[in-house]
Amino acid sequence: MNRRDFAKLMAAAGVAGAGDIAWGVSRAVGQTRGGTLNTIIQPEPPILVTALNQQQPTLTLGGKIYESLLRYSFDLKPMPGLAQSWTVSPDGLTYTFKLFPNITFHDGKPMTSADVVFSVMTVLTETHPRARGTFQRIEKAETPDPLTVVFTLKQPFAPFLSSFDCTTAPILPKHIYEGTDFRKNPANAQAIGTGPFKLKEWVRGSHIHLVRHDGYYRPGEPHLDEIFYRVIPDAASRSVALEKGVVQLTQWTDVEFFDVQRLQKLPNVEMTTKGYEFFAPHLWLDLNNRVAPMNDKRFRQACAHAIDRTAMKQRVFFGLAKEATGPVSSKTPFHEPNVRAYDYSLDKAKALLDAMGLKPGAGGKRATINFLVPPYGEIWQRMAEFIRQSLGRVGIEVVLHGLDLAGWAERVSNWEYEATLNLLYQFGDPALGVSRSYVSSNIRKGVLFSNMAGYSNPEVDRLFEEAAVALDEGKRRELYSQVQKIVVEDCPLVWLIEQDFPNFIDKKLKNVITTGIGVHDTFGQVTLG
What we know:
alpha+beta, six-stranded mixed sheet
């Protein structure tokens, strides 16, 4: 659908509705309970079960359906989720969580401590690349009563309390998944969780309709009656939808960065970049270290010198970003600024390629690499073009290939790629969001967002593990400083940008961004004021 056709559709629909699909805000003026929220999901997720897929659209939408034990504030402190309280033993080994009473799944069955233990110990250790590394540290998991969960660790793990957000540890119903092939379970189509909203309808290519879970355990929540996540592939149409009030919320890359300044002037919306603190999105050029010439660190270092991050920040992201210098974001603890600098220098890049024996051939070409463009919107195509032009200046021909979301995920997770882009979350601690991309124990074929590049360094493995189990913050800082310096020297990936994202929120909406997990949160407290 192009911009003109979409505008005609909205003009015909107005805000009252088109057919039996609600468009715009449908509620009485002054009402604080009820109403319809229209927002965008782009691209359309392949599945809604967050335990099985950790791509951004799945997590954004799935956070309304699935919950975990905890949530996290803007300063990354734990807050009650399904657990109303928790204690930690003095030796840092035993964690006891007390669940809220009267929690039910969307099929009406009660959720108990048995569901928590099943999800954490059985499902997530098989299906989830981050959770696997964390929860394999658990020695035993006990359920002394239906509302109490006790985890005892094999050894201390400093960020354990940061491991229970809805994207890392969603709780699934044991009575549905036990003894089944989790990825092929028919219930995946229903996406049965405990969240304030449940799936009513999914019309592929059009919308995903969530409605109130009347059995929700938090009194008075959710305030909204329903949420429509609209699939609008065209970026211009997404901006028009916001301008016309057809949607009341945009997030992530729903709005193109070049449009942010203009849309900020709209009288009916406000813009914030808050709500991404827990994720601290980190963008890099992902190079398959198994494949020549990417298996030579000099080639990877040459790529790092050939890309002008400052220009990328301004021309592609219009200032909503910061240049990345290594694997740990400067927005999180344990960032080490004193690492090898890959300044923008075509001469240094060419010298490294010359040293490899990659001399310019006909037309100045030294090498050709195939690049899979992530299918997350037009911004990713522009980033890919920027990288193609940048590397082309030093004789590296980049051939761009487009895929759909499922195809891209399959190719990259199965190591069937040479280069792509990746945007990964850091989750407040390197042991949770950083080490997974570099430790050799997480080289897992078929698992997206693991160590897909195939980088392996025993010293890096050792340092990441020591830092994960150390309880003294000073010791952890020292270890993470060492490992960052080694990884940046090895340059398994080319770190590009620490990303900011604009959330445009209709001023009628309240309590949209209330935690450090932002639009991934439940929306149980969101109201139409």
